[in-house]
TrEMBL record:
Keyword Glycosyltransferase: yes
Localisation per UniProt entry: Endoplasmic reticulum membrane
The protein's annotated pathway: Glycolipid biosynthesis; glycosylphosphatidylinositol-anchor biosynthesis
Keywords of the record: Endoplasmic reticulum, Glycosyltransferase, GPI-anchor biosynthesis, Membrane, Transferase, Transmembrane, Transmembrane helix
Name of the protein in its database record: Glycosyltransferase family 39 protein
Topology relative to the membrane: Multi-pass membrane protein
Region described as Disordered: 1-20
Native species: Streptomyces polychromogenes
Membrane-spanning intervals of the chain: 28-50, 103-127, 139-160, 180-209, 221-241, 281-302, 309-327, 356-378
Taxonomic classification: Bacteria, Bacillati, Actinomycetota, Actinomycetes, Kitasatosporales
Length: 382
């Protein structure tokens, strides 16, 4: 072959086994974008109709205000409520999301850019886990179900849940493929994102411990198990040092009204509903969502889900159900627990395609309506 032939010869086509995963992931991302894009459009139109700025509604509601303040000015803001003796410090909010927002330029648009990018990465990770465990069709349906949850509106807000979901999904995927150092690195970042990021570290450390008990002695396994909680621990220690109180972070949480009461608050809320008390729509939805989550948690081990997913979802569920505080926010805290939807995705994958589409469309419609209600009408913390 002469030089001219070498210059004009076409490049070899990518191997089919490389093209197909990318195409399948692209289909999952398209489904996610369609579902959540529709939800964002409903919020934007509702905000415009109500005379409010859609960008401020999506990028500056509730906790987003605190993240934007940290991104712009750093830590140090405290808000006091004399009527209830409540003291709210921004030290309750972990730093990774506001740091990324600051790097993107700050403000609601930057925060939304970070959140939406993370949501896309999360959808890709959720699909790859579903595809690995149940097949491509179930993987896409897993993404569709996750994007259609009642509180999935949070995936289009300037909140930390999209970022935690992305880091958790890819950390769990790395564990399933025994990529120990990748899993540990992502767990460290998850621990710097939200308090519940400790669930990712718990999954990494638990799987590393199992590997060691089986006789594995690879340095990467030891490193993963030991390093995974480093992000969460570092921030908790930093708050304690700043407040000159070893357990200062937990004091901050108690001042916000958040503490671990072993589920007493959850049981009391369920009791109010069962006894016919004055119950709001968000409380009723929260109780129903927790009931479904517990049922799915029972089904997950029956379907022989891998250990990383069981530990991760189990820790999230214990923290959410056992914690007291903002009761109506519990479904949001469980939004990263996407493995709970695996049994439902498997069942939908066995149904007819039109049935799966109809179910997804119906759930998405309900999610749109409830998301608009939470952001534009309800007066409860999201």
């Amino acid at each position: 072959m002469d030089a001219t032939t070498r210059r004009t010869a076409p490049a070899p086509a990518p191997a089919p086994w490389r093209r197909e995963p990318a195409r399948a992931t692209g289909r999952a991302l398209a489904v996610f974008a369609a579902v959540r894009g529709g939800g964002a459009l409903v919020i934007a139109l509702g905000a415009w109709w109500a005379g409010r700025d859609p960008v401020k509604v999506l990028g500056g509601s509730w906790d987003s205000f605190w993240y934007l303040s940290i991104a712009a000015h750093g830590y140090g803001r405290t808000q006091m409520w004399p009527a209830s003796d409540s003291i709210q410090s921004d030290a309750a909010f972990f730093p990774l999301f506001p740091v990324l927002t600051h790097l993107f330029g700050g403000g609601p648009v930057a925060a939304l850019a970070v959140a939406w990018t993370a949501a896309g990465a999360a959808a890709a990770g959720v699909y790859r886990i579903g595809e690995r465990l149940l097949g491509p069709r179930a993987g896409v349906l897993l993404v569709a179900l996750w994007a259609s949850l009642p509180h999935a509106v949070v995936l289009t807000l300037a909140y930390t849940e999209p970022l935690l979901c992305a880091l958790a999904a890819w950390a769990l995927y790395a564990l399933l493929r025994e990529r120990w150092l990748w899993a540990a690195a992502l767990a460290v970042l998850a621990g710097l994102t939200r308090p519940t990021g400790i669930a990712v570290a718990a999954a990494v450390s638990a799987v590393a411990l199992r590997e060691l008990l089986r006789g594995g002695r690879a340095p990467a396994v030891w490193a993963a198990g030991l390093l995974a909680p480093a992000g969460w621990t570092a921030y908790v220690v930093a708050v304690g040092v700043r407040r000159h109180e070893p357990l200062g972070y937990f004091t901050v949480q108690r001042q916000w009204g958040s503490r671990f009461d072993f589920g007493a608050g959850t049981v009391a809320a369920v009791g109010r509903i069962l006894t016919g008390g004055n119950v709001t729509v968000p409380v009723a939805v929260t109780v129903a969502g927790l009931a479904v989550a517990v049922l799915c948690a029972v089904l997950l081990p029956l379907d022989r889900a891998p250990l990383p997913l069981l530990v991760y979802t189990g820790v999230l569920l214990v923290i959410t159900v056992g914690g007291a505080g903002f009761f109506e926010s519990k479904p949001r805290f469980l939004l990263p627990a996407f493995p709970l939807l695996l049994p439902a995705a498997a069942a939908m994958a066995r149904a007819r395609p039109r049935t799966a589409v109809a179910v997804t469309a119906g759930l998405a419609g309900l999610s749109y309506g409830y998301g608009a209600y939470l952001l534009l009408i309800a007066k409860v913390p999201l």
